[in-house]
Amino acid sequence: MADITAPAYRVIPIIPALKPGAMEGKGPFVAGDKLNEALGFPGQLVEDWHDRAIAKMGQLLSKYRSLKVFMDACVHCGACSDKCHYFIGTQDPKNMPVARQDLLRSVYRRYFTLPGKLFPKLVGARDLTREVLDEWYNYFNQCSECRRCSVFCPYGIDTAEVTMAAREILDSVGYGQKYSNEIIGKVHKIGNNLGLPGPALSDTLEGLEEDVKDATGIDVRFPMDVKGAEVLLITPSADFFAEPHIDSLIGYAKVFHATGTSWTLSSMSSEAGNFGMFIGNYDQLRTIALRIRQAALELGVKRIVVGECGHAWRVAYSFWNTLTGVGEGADPNDHFAQMLQKQLDHRYKQPAHICEFTWDMIQDNRLTFDKSANDKHIITFHDSCNVARGSRMGDLPGGQFEIPRNIIRAVANNFVEMAPSTTREQTFCCGGGGGLLTDDLLELRVKGALPRMEVLQQAVDEHGVNFMATICAICKAQFTKIMPIYGFDRKMVGGVHQLVSNAIQLGPK
Amino acid sequence: MASIVFAILFYLATLLLVVGLLYRISTYARTPAPLKIPTTPAPTTTGGVVLRMTREVVFFESLFKANLWIWGFGWLFHASLALVILRHLRYFTEPVWEWVAFIQPFGMYAGITMLLGLCGLWARRLLVERIRYISTPSDHLMLVLLIGIAASGLMMKFAAHTDVIAVKSYFLGLMHFDVGVLPADLLLVVHLSLVVSLLVVFPNSKLLHAPGVFFSPTRNQKDDPREKRHLSAWAAKLESEK
What we know:
The complex is a heterodimer of chains A (about 500) and B (about 240).
Chain A: H1 33-38, H2 49-63, H3 65-73, H4 85-90, H5 97-112, H6 114-118, H7 120-123, H8 130-140, H9 148-152, H10 159-172, H11 178-190, H12 198-216, E1 231-234, H13 245-258, E2 263-264, H14 275-278, H15 282-299, E3 303-306, H16 310-324, H17 335-341, E4 352-353, H18 354-363, E5 379-381, H19 385-390, H20 399-411, H21 442-448, H22 450-463, E6 467-470, H23 473-482, E7 493-495, H24 496-503
Parallel strand pairs in A: 1-2, 1-3, 3-4, 5-6, 6-7
Chain B: H1 2-30, H2 46-59, H3 61-66, H4 68-88, H5 98-102, H6 104-127, H7 129-134, H8 137-158, H9 164-175, H10 186-201, H11 209-212, H12 217-220, H13 233-241
Helix pairs in contact in B: 1-10, 4-6, 6-8, 8-10
């Protein structure tokens, strides 16, 4: 892996020429028997995979309007063809969103449409062969489900939905991806993606309390399993020990401390991430999310707040109400959701993002900052794809862009933007999202980061940027890994609440 | 002879188009959307969604953001096609509605701009490497079909006039199940044959993007998942099973 080098920056960001087959056979490790069976999938590729895959496709077409419409509506206009970071970085034409979709669409046409049955060659329909199945495995595991293509498609076709369907089909025939399925197994067994058991977690939190005491002289608490706390914090487990994630966890704790908010973590439900979304499996998505519901009910909390994690926030914001009832507005006869919704305090948004929480407190003048503590940083902000294109913060559309930036401006003096065609809803994926943050995909991850690295370099050259803030655990892990390969210091990446932590005043006002 | 053949073809093609489209649309409408997946930032109100869809359908907003060339040619083609179709209403109404009479000259020039748009789109398909790569034979044929319709129509207008009064009385007759006489004119036969093909192809092809866009969950959903619980029938069943 050490021989992986960064691709050269494009002189002007031109659209790359095609290199067919460039990423063929570069997919991730295949999941083994135990990992698959633990999730209820066949252990390995079943003998009748062909029939089962087609049947599964038919089932998904009848369950998801998105898939059904997206399979029919594409006109091959090419609007999306230069929008994917993996295509830009790898130049493999099958990494163009439309070509990636067509891997599945060609089979859809063959088995589910009249022209495809009658004139397969004419309409680009293909039989589902072993080669096609392998191609699915390879290229649907080279999509980070970042939805950038869906911003530009005139019909809103979202490749993420197609990738999810393809992965669901692959899992259903025993052809799952190791990294994602292993992680989901850990959540079920231990309660978080990293497999940190409760005792290790409480040790870590105690250690953090000591560290913060040493650094500030103040007793900032990191409570766990406190019944009757007001806030349940659900955060990506990387926040508990990975760098720079942990600095943001310290930031959340300081915000709760400074505002006198009673809060708790849960040892049973110590994970915001939900890889069930990545593999497109509704049951997994739901089962993982139900742990949060269970923790909220058991601890009797009034509010649920989610830490800095991109896809987790998409799942929390967009799906939790559907999956678990964390939210508002359930039907009065909907006892499942009502049970939880009656407990929650609806003066606040449920769930809330930690940035919403902090920004509300800043607006209420409940926090004071010494902005000069961040003067060593010239800061830019990387919008994380799932936050940008799959969620919201605050009351207005686009709050997911404004609120984190508002916080940064409130706690630091030097903030600059990167090129506008690569921020907000047009942001580029870090290159490691969607269940691809694994070392067996390092080449893909390095190449997929190219468009972001190009504009970061530009911001460094023009404004002297030395800190890129982001609110996603995967972005943070991906960037710390690949930025040194592009010649950047890994410490350039950090969380928004890391900046909050630097500047927040904890003593009496 | 041609009069009867075309009468049968038009009845059949219209039936296939209507039944095919109704079937497709009802499938889209019946298939549940279990999760909230609007591409954000998205409107939070129904009025906002209507505005977003209108911008999308009338101005091709997303395509505009994506690529100005495709947007330019694509919009030119679609807007022209709309005018051309409206202009053709004169062959099916007697007396001709006033606004249809008014747009006649615009509709005529729209035939030319429609052809321009189509040629631009085809040029991109042939010349741009990425788009050539994703094109199937049917993508090219579809453009050829539309170019054929536009070209044969324009030729009847500007090169070799056809007896439009006879054509009109033939179609007015068809609308009352009364098969009259269609002028024997090669250009007209080509034009009408291609139009019949288009009607048949429409509900069985990528031309379904027209109804499809209205059902696209990333565009037509409100961004309100925290305020209102969104639950599809099959997802709700999972809860009652517990």
